[in-house]
Amino acid sequence: MKIFIIEDDEGLSSGMAFALEREGYEVRRFRGCEDSRKAFGEEVPDAVLLDWNLPDGDGLALCREFRELSGVPILMVTARDMEMDEVMCLECGADDYIAKPFSLAVLKARLSALLRRRERAGERQLCSGNIRLEEGKMKAFKGEAELDLSLTEFRLLKYLLENRNQVLLKEQILEKVWDAGGNFVEENTLPVNIRRLRLKIEDDPSRPRRIKTVHGMGYLWEDAHE
């Protein structure tokens, strides 16, 4: 899972990143609003740890922006510890609030709880570059534009994203997305649907950067760095 840490205190940011990476999370760190806002427009993470006071803007305002774009879990991390401060964070769209100083064990527990709640609510998101799939809502997006996908295309995209950077055999895809065992499916069914998906996802479908053909085997979803 990918976590954004938006925190200008280098020591704290580094410590949080180290602790989360040891738990298996993929972490991207940002010092302020501008760089994190740009990154959020390209790929929506699984959760955001967001400081209130940032050098180039207000963390609460950034929280509102993120909440308008996505239901991603947001944990506000701030030195402000008054009751009204917590209320303001929650009213701006944050899912939880933790005041500095805090233990990394508590931070990890809070983050884990947020992610579990989202899973239970059926709001799992799969993201790669600027492609985002919202499983519970059966929607997919390229940047902020919703993709017009058929049910089969949605299931195909979901399976590719769940196994990104791995070669998937044609038989595996047919069995998972179409018929159990891959039987009773026309020979050109898979390449036709791959082509349709590329037309909707790739910037240049004739030179795909995401859905790669592995000749003689199958297909590979490759993470694209925008």
State the strand order across the main sheet.
2-1-3-6-7
Strand content: 15-25%
Count of domain modules: 2
Unreliable residue runs = none
Task: Spell the H/E element sequence.
Answer: EHEHEEEHEHEHEEEEHEHHEE
CATH homologous superfamily (4th level) name of the largest domain? Response regulator
Overall shape: elongated
The CATH topology of the largest domain comes to: Rossmann fold
- The SS-based structural class is alpha/beta
The count of DSSP E runs of length 2 or more, i.e. the number of strands, is 14
Task: Compute the CA-based radius of gyration.
Answer: 20 Å
Largest sheet: 5 strands, parallel
The CATH class of the largest domain: Alpha Beta
In terms of quaternary structure, the protein is single chain
Helices, by number, come to 8
Protein described:
The structure is a single chain. This protein is α/β, with parallel strands linked by helices. The chain has 2 domains: 122 residues, Rossmann fold; 94 residues, Arc Repressor Mutant, subunit A (Orthogonal Bundle). Helices cover 41% and strands 23% of the residues. It is built from 8 helices and 14 strands. The radius of gyration is 20 Å and the shape is elongated. The mean pLDDT is 87.
